[in-house]
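Repro case for the chain-ordering regression, as requested:
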Amino acid sequence: MSGKVLCIDDSPTIRKLVHKALDPQGYEVQEAENGKEALGLADTSVDLFLVDVHMPEMDGFEFVESIKQRPELAGKPVVFLTTESSEEKKQRGKQLGVNGWIVKPFEPEALTKVIAMLTPAT
Amino acid sequence: MERRTNAAAVISLGLALAGALAAFHSPAWAVVLVSTAGAAGAVTYLFACMDMRSSEHRAGERLTELEARHAEREEAARRSLDDLREEGRALREQMRGYGETTRALAEAVALIRETAPIIEGLSRTAIEKSERGSTSLTDDVYEIGRQSTTLSTSITGFLTELCTGDESLEERIADMELDLERLSENAAICDRTNASLDRSIDRISQSVGETSELLGQVSDIAERTSILAINAAIYAAKAGEFGKGFSVIAGEIQKLAGTAKEVAEAIGTNTVSIERQVADFSAQHHALMADSQKNLSRTIGSIHHTITGLRPRLDRIRSSISEAARVSDSVTSHLSEINMAMQQQDAIQQIVSHISVIFDDATARVPESALAPLREGQERARELARQIAVKHFTMEDEYLAIGAQGYGAGVAGRVVLDNGVELGGNVTLF
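-- result from build under test --
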């Protein structure tokens, strides 16, 4: 497996744990502390966006809304990785075109499987 | 009664109106009607006078009744007033209590407000420390896991190599077992060769003995031949001229006998030498063979012991391969659990952050007017909050979180032991 995952989370611990889970699987993990920073890093080389919901500057929903308006990024898979578990928020994510929703704490194996499923061609 | 007066008045008025109307049509009817109306008016007046007297009477009764009721109400009002005065006193007391409570509440609110930045500072410190710890711990644990997996893989590879392939330990043991068989066969061959050699040496000894006997006979023959030649020479001398030729022959025979004897003695000497050499060789051979057999036996025993010892070790190696693989899986599984535990830690950080934000938000909503009763006590509340915080603080980071330097936070000293070793961290030796 390989591919580039942009991990957007304000927690350095979570970003590191995502690294630890995905590095051994051959994924390249790029990090951003919030949606605003991620917008500067998001380009066509990214194969999947792994996004937290609650972040300073720009939250996960706002970030997804932004990339969905960029035609070259609109089709990229997006997975929310968050402590948020309310059905209302999930539905909002679904309406935005998000592909998956993983509630923290995540199991590394589950994360890698979801990402592998959503990035089969990479 | 009043109804009666009213009815008469109405009738009188009606008749007067009817008379006025009739005056336009028939004066006679008008006179009749007006007259009747006048009568009705008189009756009305009469009734009214009667009603008035009656009303005066009732009014008097009513007045008496009202005076009695007024007296009652006045009494009741006086009692109520007394009650109200009593309630007023109670209310004033209560208000004084409320004032004290309000003041106490204001003090508490002021204290809480002063505590908010302390809690915020503590939360920030806790989160930073936890975050640093989590990050470092994650790196360390994953490094341990990586090294453990690498070591496990290396050990597994090495052990697998020991157990498989042409150069494997198993193959070596099999080779040693074949060598052992060959050595055992060689030992048997040596035994057989040794026995055969012993038999040959016995035969040589026997032949040497037989040869010695034959040489004795040869010597005896040579001795007797020599005597015979001497006798022949004597008889040849007695024969004179005729015996000269025979005397020469006798002399030659004597020489041959002497030569034969010398040859027999030389052969005897050589035979004795051969016998001695064979005996020496036999002794040396036996000694050598004994040593060789002892060494061979020791080697066989050693190889057998080695093989016997290696077999269970080989089984343990196979078991260790499985164990190493299991350890590797276990490390992976534990890393997964640690990953989740670190996320829980991260969740705790978030919760602490949320608590701080909520507390800060809530205290920010306290209106300034709520603090009005304590306006002059703000500084006291601030100092009280710091005193309460410092009372419970145990760590330097806590003091630093509120900028309370000098509240007993120790300065980490550089401690060097007598042997020159410098101690890390915050150590104080007394």
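Ordering looks correct now. The mean pLDDT of chain B is 82.
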